[in-house]
Amino acid sequence: MLLDIFDPKAPPRPIGIDLGTTHSIVATVRDGRPVPLTTCDGTALLPSVVYYSKEGGILVGRAAKAHATREPERTIQSAKRFMGRGGADPETKRPGAYRFAVPETEDEAKVVRFDLGWTRPSPVEVSAEILKSLRRSALDQLRTVGGVVITVPAYFDDAQRQATRDAGRLAGLEVLRLLNEPTAAALAYGLEKKRNGLFVVYDLGGGTFDVTVLRLEDGVFQVQSTGGDSALGGDDMDRAIAERMLAELAPQDARTPELVSLVLELAREAKHVLTERETVELDVHAPGAAPRRFTLSRSEFEALIEPLIERTQRACRRALRDADVSPADVDGVILVGGATRVPRVRRAVKELFGKEPLADIDPDLVVAYGAAVQADLLAKASDEVLLLDVLPLSLGIETMGGGVDRILPRNTTIPAGARSTFTTYADNQTGFEIHVVQGERELARDCRSLARFSLKGIPPMPAGMARLEVSFDVDENGLLHVTAMERTTGRSQTVEVRPSYGLSDEEVERMLIEALDHGEEDLEARRLADARVEAERIALATRKGLASDADLLTSEERAAIDRALAELETAARTATAARPIELAIDALAAATHEFAGRRMNRAIASAIAGKAVSDVEQSVAHAAGIEAHLASKGAR
Amino acid sequence: MTDPFDVLGIEPRFRLDLESVGARHRDLSRALHPDRYVGRPANERRLALSRAIEVNQAFGIVRDPVRRAQALLARHGVSVPEGSEPPAEPTFLMRMLELREELAALVATKDVSALERFIERAEADEAGAVEALAAGFAELERRAEPPPEITGELVRRLGELRYYRRLLGEARAARDEIE
User: Fold this and answer.
1) Is A472 part of a structural domain of the chain?
2) Contact check, Cβ <8 Å, A176/B38
């Protein structure tokens, strides 16, 4: 490697993180190409394992995994499976090595916690340990780390996404964006191939299966449909093998966590061996029992996983139907996830799509590469590529009878929004409860309960008179924002409503402060540093805007912006705490509010009326009808 | 809400080249998607988000024949929310009744391939209803002052399309369930 000389003025380097069920990876773009960074294990792949010792120590990665056999209940693997899940969730109830804390309140029951004696971390906190380790590795190699893009399975619902973002914030990362794993994979491929067409991303990871149909046209990746199973993956193959061995080894009640963990590890190795060889021999040395030898052939293994393969096929067919395309329309299939190395899986893909899948990028790294590319594009404010994702699961509201009023169907392009109007059903009713659910089932109780929102402060009036308009916005990350407006009284009051499972800014701050006791860096110093970075970024963006669109401003407006800008720059230079800088940022934002709106209108007008010369050739054929229409109406 | 044709800057017609509407949607998304506003002040990002939502909503409406027809009728001051259309003609209702009985029987036998064939036929019927609607709108678009009979007829045809839509939705849901 060339000497990487540290330049103190170098801008923070954006990074991409694939926070996987079994492995996590951090990557960055160097000289225009994504490269993995070395983790604390000295490899690109960091096992997503966190070990909490009895004495209060925390280990991450291979060092943590070393404890899995002897202390499985203290060694948290596959924490991602529990993200955003409550104690009553089927996922939590699956047999496993972990002991979950017994919730004391209804609120506590919403988030599962691992009971480890001195600590009871939630899956968010466990994931934050993995992210912290990756952040440290990135800092060691890049010196300064900027924003991060973290990938999530496309099928993740709002609670799971929120949990992932919270984990990033807890790890002290600036989360620029949550990116769907298949979209990330397509980004990693698409940029290299520069080719328009219809692609399918087949992503069989450790714990989740996603299938995404997307169209790439003129640098815009538009997801057509996405489907899959958020509880299906390579781990299930291990489990299928382990189940067979355990059936012979020990009756249900004699299965200690140690034995289950040992057999699972052997099963995983067997799966790996069977990608290359026809048979594998497994020796089980369970503590206190005679050694046993098992033989497993590839065809036996394939029979064991056949139900899993069928589930993936079904999800693929459904995603194709949702996109209104047939397998023959597909130009390429991209494989993602370690489990796609299993020969039966590749055969299944070939059977369904009638073509050899693409796998020239390491399926374990491709998602992290895409995340790094996206982080780089976002940091550069590049307009080369745009990702238009979709809502993976329908959003609905529970109706009076327990049914679901679907407000946004699945596969709606995001960002997306919908409005619903509610009215009171009792005289002088002043409050409302809205139950938002996500899923495709007919009954609210069969869907995933996202949140119950309480709306209060409706003025007393007869039943049916109050008009409450509730907006449901899904942002580019797939995160839901709910705002309510009371329309009857004429004064529209907006209430930001937060779902009950996400962490508030205050909670994140409190948890970060608590982390200080464990020898982390100074929080106020970091807030100040963050505010300075933010100030610099906003000042830069404002200067850029002034350079290109100053003609949209009157001289008074211009003077006000220049003043606010100068004040921000002074504050950023001289302030010794974050607060004055944050205030100056707000003041500049207020001064540029109108300007921003006008610039956006100009951007829209130019997108409609014509484009930069370099783009014209590509799109002129497409847009001919519209251009002709505009020309007939005269210049706008 | 804002007229979707205006949001996309396209001519309000029923027959559209969806390819070029898609290209327009991409161009507008490139200008407004929140990813283009990373690092900008929070209020600017919120504004971009709400306008990007508006563009996506407009594209969703224009792309779908039922919602497109609704939006076009709204431009002529005719509001037709789902379920508000006048009762369908008896012969049409009879036919729908028969189709429903056929679907119920197919669902009971759990015969996926027969269900697939049923769906294909219903899709053809749906396409026919879209075509009838398109012809009606062509008539409407030719006139400067369309008489109310024309919009009334369009509302009726829209109603028929919705019937087919619902039938198809149920048939597809049944197939997904059985599979």
Assistant:
1) yes
2) yes
Res A621 pLDDT > 60: no
Verify that A537 and A592 share a domain, yes or no: yes
Single-letter residue type at A629: H
- Residue type at position A566: A
Q: What is the least distance, in Å, from the CA of B28 to any CA of chain A?
A: 6
Q: Is residue A447 part of a domain?
A: yes
Three-state secondary structure string covering A598-620 = HHHHHHHHHHHHCCCHHHHHHHH
Say if the Cβ atoms of A386 and B57 lie within 8 Å: no
Asked whether residue A497 is domain-assigned, the answer is: yes
Residue A254 lies in a domain: no
Marked catalytic residue, from A65, A71, A80, A486 = A80
DSSP string computed for B129-154: HHHHHHHHHHHHHH-SS--HHHHHHH
For chain A, the domain total comes to: 2
DSSP letters for A315-331: HHHHHHHHHT--GGG--
Beta strands in A349-499 (DSSP E): 386-388, 395-398, 404-408, 416-422, 432-438, 448-455, 468-474, 480-486, 494-497
C-alpha span between A98 and A76 (Å, rounded) = 8
CATH number at residue A449: 2.60.34.10
List the CATH number of the domain containing A563: 1.20.1270.10
Q: Is A271 a catalytic residue?
A: no
Q: Enumerate the residues of chain A whose CB falls inside 8 A of the CB of residue B179.
A: 314, 317
Q: Is A310 helix (H, G, I), strand (E, B) or coil?
A: helix
Q: Are residues A417 and A490 in the same domain?
A: yes
Query: How far apart are alpha carbons A366 and A117 in whole angstroms?
Result: 38
According to the model, what pLDDT value does residue A248 have? 82
Asked whether the whole model's pTM tops 0.90, one would answer no
- Per-residue pLDDT tens digits for A202-219: 999 877 788 999 998 888
Residues A351 and B150: their CA atoms lie apart, in Å, by 51
Does A538 share its domain with A578? yes
Tell me the two tokens of residue A510: 């409190």
| pLDDT tens-place string over residues A299-348 | 999 999 999 999 999 899 989 988 989 999 999 999 998 899 999 999 99
The structural domains of chain B, ordered by start, are 4-63 (1.10.287.110), 90-178 (1.20.1280.20)
ipTM computed for the complex:
0.87
Which residue in B21, B120, B5, B123 sits closest to B54, CA to CA? B5
- Could you tell me if A433 and A493 are in contact, meaning their C-beta atoms sit under 8 angstroms apart? no
Interface residue of B40, B82, B175 to substitute, partner A, most A CBs within 10 Å = B40
Write out the residue range of the structural domain in which residue A468 sits: 395-502
Q: Rounded mean pLDDT of A482-487?
A: 76
B36: DSSP letter: G
